[in-house]
Amino acid sequence: MSKVAIEFAGVKKSFGNKLVVNGVSFTVASGECFGLLGPNGAGKSTLARMVLGMTRPDAGKVTVLGVPMPARGRLARKGIGVVPQFDNLDLEFTVRENLLVFGCYFGMSTRAIEAIIPSLLEFARLESKAHARVADLSGGMKRRLTLARALINDPQLLVMDEPTTGLDPHARHLIWERLRFLLARGKTIILTTHFMEEAERLCDRLCILDHGCNIAEGSPYALIEEHIGCPVIEIFGGNPQELSSLIRPYVQRVEVSGETVFCYAPDPEQVRAQLRGRSGLRFLQRPPNLEDVFLRLTGLELEK
Ligand SMILES: Nc1ncnc2c1ncn2[C@@H]1O[C@H](COP(=O)(O)OP(=O)(O)OP(=O)(O)O)[C@@H](O)[C@H]1O
Ligand SMILES: [Mg+2]
């Protein structure tokens, strides 16, 4: 098996006159979990579709499981499991029928699919729903079925576009546990997510995209150390502008987002000392996390 599962080299893509992928390069090693993070519209799903050979780059090279994409897409897709951003299940079919039909796309025999269905239902905790129509499932159940369906061909590589969006916290923890299990068995995962905790827990490495550019890449820990590297205090309950001017001399950086002042403070005690005696203020002191990195690097603006 190739040691490199995915390679993007100088990849560009425009839709009309809008450049949505602007010279992206990265490599994902076999057995790694690699994250694609970025604000809405940053180009994550476009890159995920390129891994599947469903979107053709205008420039650059995409190689997946040792073959060029999209030229050898059919071959590569035999070894890939897909969780698209939006579920595309057959609503009129039952859970079981959805799995049967999907398995047929991979040329599996009905017997082979039937043999694997119980473990897939167990994976998704849908054992009691085998004969339910998909239209009658909750949103989270549909998502879990899409996840289970992605495993039907025992893929080497999983391409997961926001796998846990719409799931409740229990279901999300269940899926994280299952994805860890797959990683422990040597699978490779490329995943997009808006949940920074998910990326921090699962990803060996990740890149942050903004306006189609790869603006940072590394392990979650390395990115947090490089871009933040000190404790964070969130302060709310006062006038954010006034508070931020008051503490600015005592912190590395201060930012206001809505009613909250974010202080990046190597010496948190100095900040607290400045604000002692002020009534009504609330403090939350915590270690830095990936969300701090994300906000710092991508800014707080929404896609226009
Ligand atoms: N088929 C298409 N035709 C035209 N524009 C497209 C097409 N697909 C994507 N785009 C545009 O490309 C940009 C990137 O879209 P993409 O879906 O890759 O973003 P994303 O990072 O996945 O966003 P989100 O977090 O909202 O899912 C967006 O501006 C989007 O409108
Ligand atoms: Mg997307």
Automatic annotation (TrEMBL):
Q: Does the keyword Coiled coil apply?
A: no
Q: Which Pfam families match?
A: ABC_tran
Q: Where is the ABC transporter domain?
A: 6-236
Q: Which InterPro entries match?
A: AAA+_ATPase, ABC_transporter-like_ATP-bd, ABC_transporter-like_CS, ABC_transporter_ATP-binding, ABC_transptNodI, P-loop_NTPase
Compartments, record wording: Cell membrane
Q: Name the Gene Ontology molecular function terms of this record.
A: ATP binding; ATP hydrolysis activity; transmembrane transporter activity
The UniProt entry, under PROSITE patterns, shows: ABC_TRANSPORTER_1, ABC_TRANSPORTER_2
Q: What is the top-level taxon of the source organism? A: Bacteria
Q: Name one GO cellular component term.
A: plasma membrane
Where is it chiefly localized? membrane
Instruction: Recite the UniProt keywords alphabetically.
Output: ATP-binding, Cell inner membrane, Cell membrane, Membrane, Nodulation, Nucleotide-binding, Translocase, Transport
User: Which family does the record claim for this protein?
Assistant: Belongs to the ABC transporter superfamily.
What is the protein name for this chain? Nodulation factor ABC transporter ATP-binding protein NodI
Q: What is the lineage of its organism?
A: Bacteria, Pseudomonadati, Pseudomonadota, Alphaproteobacteria, Hyphomicrobiales
